């Protein structure tokens, strides 16, 4: 029997291949047919006829909120501390359920008869060792004679479990349905993943064969998931009809023994959970099941369980927390996650080709960004990563992708402003990239251009300060590093004043916890205030013993290959390792974190990496000072921390920034329902232009207010 030869897909009609897996028992020889079909968008896409959440919210009694869950249902969340369970039903029993209940529908209802219903397989390829064979007949082939194709062991095991005993099963499988030897076809099909998986009847996640404890892990996750709910505004609570009403609470310890935690950890270390490609496969369709051997569970149960478990990080077993914390970042996905957030996830995942760190999640990114990314496996990986920076600059006028840069993980020999996505992120500090918690450049628009052929990036910004002292590399918790904390603390906590105002001790404690305090938030917030942290830390600095309350209050103070630093001007900060004296702290337009840069002569600079610096995180470098009694606040709305202002004397909340004056003629701040944009954006009524940046924070407007900007060339 000959090796299988692929028949070319007709790109002009949107062809794809489907596998018709022939019936048989587990140990029978694997056989299939391959057919070509044009995969077109549905003629009549499913239309959600329910009221929008915003409209439904107006019908609720005081204290109630309505939110959308991970599986698209509307959850009515009861007033906090009321003791009333959350519900799938409107609090008004007379309200029409059609306004909020999700109707059942099948993707097949929207298709013409040009493609048969199919299931898409998501699995880990595994290694090329011990390959097996599948026998193929291709009616599109001129020969139409049986041939064989090598497939890897994990796929062979999956097909053995998935095939029916008495009828064919129609599947889309990347290793078979894409000619992996044809680079051009691979590139075209990669961009179609955002069609192939969502338009399938179902996505099957294959974790591998059953193990001794896999069934126990799946049962534990499923039961936990049925007790909790997670909504896309990044909130969680008890599920309607939950039997365990407190399991959703962050501080509630689950009654799991060592066997249960071990089984969950073993499940999370299966190869599927370590692969890049699988995330978009699992999240791009709402009909997904996870299968391990013969055992199955709804994927939404697993996703929800892991997201809520992540919130219990302070009381989880250490090995579970270390695995879950970086992985669960990806489970948020739009509209919960930013582009930077997803790349925090992908940097910890595995793939055989470094370009797949980008290509493997294109289906989850803003289509406007995807349109700027050329899928080309002949392009060097660093240029693929550079495309991300340039695409964000062009689409959003932002430069937040350079927050992924770090001197110690730099791609050697290539521009320092190009992030190295092949390596995990350096520093616990950068975990906050995903929360959109800071606005160092104050919602300004990037002013940047690529200088070729040198591939330098010319940006506009302001150099603020020069680093004068750097600690050694730090890794550990607050308790483990208490001597370093004492050594770097202000010498006179009660009187030393900070360069941007206030006590230096206040700046220091906020630096240690990377801004995770209640001072910037509104409403209920579990984080301690800056004042409380200062009151706890000040006596602890002089005490030989560390009080448990201090350790709990500083639980968000931990380091991972990071260092503390101070500047000649008096700023204090923290950044990933790689800093040295003489480096400079700059605020670059369009970049939400301050950036450490290294002078290279002739106004050229290398990117060292982002940093947290008290007094520079909320636009202070690009705006006039905020006069008392006003202070900045950053309440989180739908995953975005948006800038507000609070009058500390009256409690008045102000959304607009009085320092900036009125919006330019024709501009208006409007609500956005776009899942890839903030809840509030700016619209130019004259031309319909939508911007996530404040038109009052253009480079010209900033300079008109007396702030001096300069051009910096990043090399």
TrEMBL record:
It comes from the Eukaryota. Residues 118-281 form the Heterokaryon incompatibility domain. This is HET-domain-containing protein. It comes from Trematosphaeria pertusa. The lineage of its organism: Eukaryota, Fungi, Dikarya, Ascomycota, Pezizomycotina.
């Amino acid at each position: 029997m000959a090796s299988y030869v692929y028949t070319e897909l007709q790109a002009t009609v949107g062809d794809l291949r489907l596998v018709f897996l022939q019936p048989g028992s587990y140990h029978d020889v694997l056989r299939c047919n391959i057919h070509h079909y044009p995969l077109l968008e549905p003629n009549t896409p499913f239309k959600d006829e329910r009221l929008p959440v915003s409209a439904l919210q107006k019908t609720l009694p005081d204290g109630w909120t309505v939110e959308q869950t991970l599986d698209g249902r509307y959850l009515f969340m009861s007033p906090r501390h009321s003791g009333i369970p959350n519900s799938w039903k409107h609090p008004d029993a007379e309200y029409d359920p059609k306004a909020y209940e999700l109707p059942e529908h099948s993707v097949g209802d929207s298709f013409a008869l040009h493609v048969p219903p199919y299931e898409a397989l998501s699995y880990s390829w595994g290694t090329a060792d011990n390959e097996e064979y599948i026998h193929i007949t291709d009616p599109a082939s001129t020969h139409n004679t049986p041939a064989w194709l090598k497939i890897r062991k994990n796929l062979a095991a999956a097909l053995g479990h998935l095939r029916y005993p008495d009828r064919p099963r129609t599947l889309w499988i990347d290793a078979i349905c894409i000619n992996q030897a044809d680079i051009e076809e691979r590139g075209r099909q990669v961009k179609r993943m955002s069609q192939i998986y969502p338009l399938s009847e179902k996505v099957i996640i294959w974790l591998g064969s059953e193990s001794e404890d896999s069934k126990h892990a799946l049962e534990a996750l499923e039961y936990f998931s049925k007790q909790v709910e997670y909504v896309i505004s990044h909130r969680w609570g008890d599920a309607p009809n939950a039997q365990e009403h407190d399991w959703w609470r962050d501080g509630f310890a689950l009654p799991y023994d060592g066997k249960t935690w071990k089984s969950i950890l073993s499940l999370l270390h299966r190869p599927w959970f370590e692969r890049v490609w699988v995330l978009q496969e699992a999240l791009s369709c709402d009909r997904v099941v996870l299968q391990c051997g013969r055992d199955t569970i709804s994927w939404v149960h697993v996703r929800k369980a892991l997201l809520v478990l992540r919130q219990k990080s302070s009381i989880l077993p250490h090995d579970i927390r270390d695995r879950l914390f970086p992985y669960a970042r990806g489970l948020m996905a739009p509209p919960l996650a930013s582009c930077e957030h997803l790349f925090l996830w992908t940097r910890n995942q595995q793939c055989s080709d470094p370009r797949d760190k980008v290509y493997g999640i294109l289906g989850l990114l803003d289509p406007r960004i995807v349109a700027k990314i050329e899928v080309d496996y002949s392009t060097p990986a660093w240029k693929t990563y550079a495309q991300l920076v340039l695409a964000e600059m062009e689409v959003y006028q932002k430069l937040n992708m350079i927050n992924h840069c770090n001197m110690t993980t730099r791609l050697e020999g290539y521009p320092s402003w190009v992030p190295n996505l092949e390596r995990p992120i350096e520093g616990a500090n950068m975990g906050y990239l995903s929360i959109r918690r800071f606005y160092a450049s104050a919602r300004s628009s990037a002013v940047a251009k690529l200088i070729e052929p040198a591939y330098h990036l010319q940006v506009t910004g302001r150099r603020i300060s020069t680093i004068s002292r750097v600690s050694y590399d730090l890794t550990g918790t607050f308790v483990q590093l208490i001597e370093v904390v004492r050594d770097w603390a202000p010498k006179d906590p009660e009187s030393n004043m900070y360069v941007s105002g206030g006590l230096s001790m206040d700046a220091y404690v906020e630096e240690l916890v990377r801004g995770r305090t209640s001072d910037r938030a509104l409403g209920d917030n579990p984080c301690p205030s800056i004042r409380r942290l200062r009151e706890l830390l000040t006596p602890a600095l002089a005490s030989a013993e560390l009080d448990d309350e201090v350790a709990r209050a500083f639980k968000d103070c931990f380091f991972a290959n990071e260092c503390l630093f101070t500047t000649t001007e008096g700023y204090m900060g923290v950044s990933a390792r790689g800093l040295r004296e003489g480096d400079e702290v700059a605020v670059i337009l369009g970049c939400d974190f301050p950036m450490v840069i290294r002078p290279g002569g002739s106004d050229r600079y290398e990117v060292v990496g982002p940093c947290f610096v008290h007094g520079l995180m909320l636009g202070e470098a690009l705006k006039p000072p905020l006069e008392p009694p006003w202070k900045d606040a950053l309440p989180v709305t739908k995953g975005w921390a948006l800038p507000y202002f609070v009058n500390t004397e009256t409690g008045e909340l102000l959304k607009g920034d009085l320092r900036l004056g009125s919006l330019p003629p024709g501009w208006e701040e409007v609500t956005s329902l776009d899942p890839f944009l903030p809840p509030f954006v700016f619209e130019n009524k004259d031309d319909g232009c939508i911007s996530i940046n404040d038109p009052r924070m253009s480079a010209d407007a900033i300079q008109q207010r007396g702030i001096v900007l300069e051009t910096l060339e990043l090399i």
